[in-house]
Amino acid sequence: DRTKRKIQRYVRKDGKCNVHHGNVRETYRYLTDIFTTLVDLKWRFNLLIFVMVYTVTWLFFGMIWWLIAYIRGDMDHIEDPSWTPCVTNLNGFVSAFLFSIETETTIGYGYRVITDKCPEGIILLLIQSVLGSIVNAFMVGCMFVKISQPKKRAETLVFSTHAVISMRDGKLCLMFRVGDLRNSHIVEASIRAKLIKSKQTSEGEFIPLNQTDINVGYYTGDDRLFLVSPLIISHEINQQSPFWEISKAQLPKEELEIVVILEGMVEATGKACSILGYLWD
């Protein structure tokens, strides 16, 4: 019966948490940390924002350049050699837009040049240069962080499909295997395991999805791994184990999950990564 009904997992088999945040009223908290919010967005939205930010800034400053030329009367003296415009060869909004792009990206083709007879243009040039540098630092930094995220590193870190309970060195142990498929190693790798199971306290309080630590060698140092070859991770089922009071006949009927967290640094990039593995339901 248990295999026929649909099981709502806390963590899916691919290691992704099956938790959805709903009814979040204080959405402004996402904007207070806008950098992390942008990094967490999907690639299609991230690229869209990247393009829109640059396009909007170019259009905004292009409009200001065009307004300065229009207010000064440069548009009425386009072919007048005796007139000194604010920006040479600026004859419309399109050319003002192109000059805005050239200024912010420091291309400098040399065809459109600001003159020294336009103090408001010089001030605008300074403002656009500074703001353009800030936009570049923010957006390029955001894209760099998103590209260098080690999420795909988890694809080459594999856990055994099933965990087993058997005797090892005369002790009853829960065991599973973890291995790395890449030649570049996970530096300072450490492993933890959690038992996800609802419980009821002695006071009658019901705690859904209660998390209990599963000792996989914390006190002996066996939780710190040298992951150059597949390793067998063992948890001794003793009186301190959360499985001590669960019998063999009772175990298939229990509503529980075992989640394994492997943490370390990617050798190639130095980025810290955390990989979730799902072993039991």
Automatic annotation (TrEMBL):
Subcellular location: Membrane
Keywords, comma-separated and alphabetical: Ion channel, Ion transport, Membrane, Potassium, Potassium transport, Transmembrane, Transmembrane helix, Transport, Voltage-gated channel
Pfam families: IRK (PF01007), IRK_C (PF17655)
GO molecular function: inward rectifier potassium channel activity
Membrane-spanning parts: 47-68, 122-145
InterPro entries, alphabetized: Ig_E-set, IRK_C, K_chnl_inward-rec_Kir, K_chnl_inward-rec_Kir_cyto, Kir_TM
Catalytic reaction annotation: K(+)(in) = K(+)(out)
Bilayer topology term: Multi-pass membrane protein
This protein's record includes keyword Transmembrane helix: yes
Domain Inward rectifier potassium channel C-terminal: from-to ranges: 157-273
Quaternary organization: Associates with KCNJ3/GIRK1 or KCNJ6/GIRK2 to form a G-protein-activated heteromultimer pore-forming unit. The resulting inward current is much larger.
Family the UniProt entry places it in: Belongs to the inward rectifier-type potassium channel (TC 1.A.2.1) family. KCNJ5 subfamily.
Official protein name in the record: G protein-activated inward rectifier potassium channel 4
